[in-house]
Fold:
Amino acid sequence: MNRMYEGVKTWNPYVGCKFDCVYCKPSFQRQAKRRKKWCELCYRYKPHFHPERLNRVPNAKVIFACAYGDIAYAKVEWVEQILDVIEQHENKTFYIQTKNPSVFELYYFPSNVMLGVTIETNLTEFNTPSKFKSYAEISKAPEPWVRALKYMNYVTIEPILDFDFEIVRWLRRIKPEFVYIGYDNHNCKLPEPPLEKTLALIEELKKFTEVRLKTIRPAWWEDSPNKLRVRP
Ligand code: SF4
Structure:
């Protein structure tokens, strides 16, 4: 699965998604398949509610809520129940992340929620050795430029896809409190940017926000005898 966020535990009263990102299958969806014995809907990654988990909030300061799915596909009444529980845990911080931030407009979020949006790139077409030449081949989620228009507390650039530096202007406008950034961990042969370009992006982002590094390495297609891995 994806390396989760440092020091953050997950809580999954809602599971499932239909955005079908190619990199989700070997990560979140593979994890969910392990639950076949207990829940067929988890196995198939169909959007569904696990109300029995509402009162099983992990013992952690920071919790990634609904990490195995996207609340863009959750029923409003499910999310409202989840937010009611979150509000009762005012000493904890809950991250909620989506690829369709228009869903955030449906809810009143308690003050202990941090809203995040995944923006893996600012491009819709790619010119790299990857077989994936367009964003539409990678995910059915709204195109990244649609996501960048909405309010959010943080941005996740993971798995990073090739970009141009217009993405810095997007992020300056969004003004996230922090940005997670990292390469794919599952050998999906995505249209990745070269390491040098990613390092330059990180330096630009550090000028106006906190950058939280995940897996930083050369692109899979780079000729790099000294595989550099920078870990947080
Ligand atoms: S949006 Fe997230 S949960 Fe949905 S398919 Fe993509 S990676 Fe998986």
Q: What stands out?
A: The chain has two domains: 1-100, 119-232.
